[in-house]
């Protein structure tokens, strides 16, 4: 049920292939061919840094890239929340056509830039755009957000007891290699949790000894 079917065009004229994309798997990220991959957040990534067109076919390759992105954005693959495009600084000539609103462009937004690359995205999922802004550090859940998240995802109203510790994780792939700060809180709960399918697969209450194992 988590397979997403996406049609992509290779750089030979009139040649098409079919690719099955599985969330959490990377397809062709380090390949010399231009193959999209689906991340664990159901976002489709087009890493154009793997495309090295020659001077003779540069315009032809760029046109096919834009055609492929347009096809994906117009026919949203199942369970695809967003489309990402990763460019080298030498590929910035694509920006006007990527960022212009449809039908003149693809409607992408600039998310973040690094010394030699930049990343754009277009939200395709239901509801409001849920892609977080780019930062050097990301705070996962702390303070009142801890209580709110537990309530929103389980239906339980927790009570804060104590801060047990703070952990910093570096090089998180889902945050583009930035650091994530996570606070471990001691909460008390009453009642039984209510599973919300859109938020969690399971939400059982377990003992601290079982959790530590």
From TrEMBL:
State a single Gene Ontology molecular function. NAD binding
Q: Which UniProt keywords apply?
A: Hydrolase
> Which Pfam families does its entry note?
Nudix_hydro
**InterPro entries, alphabetized:** Nudix_hydrolase6-like (IPR003293), Pre-Nudix (IPR040618)
Domain Pre-nudix hydrolase: start-end pairs: 59-124
Tell me which domain of life the UniProt entry assigns to the organism this sequence originates from. Eukaryota
Assigned protein family: Belongs to the Nudix hydrolase family.
| Protein known as | Nucleoside diphosphate-linked moiety X motif 6
* The organism of origin for this protein: Schistocephalus solidus (Tapeworm)
Q: Which gene encodes it?
A: NUDT6
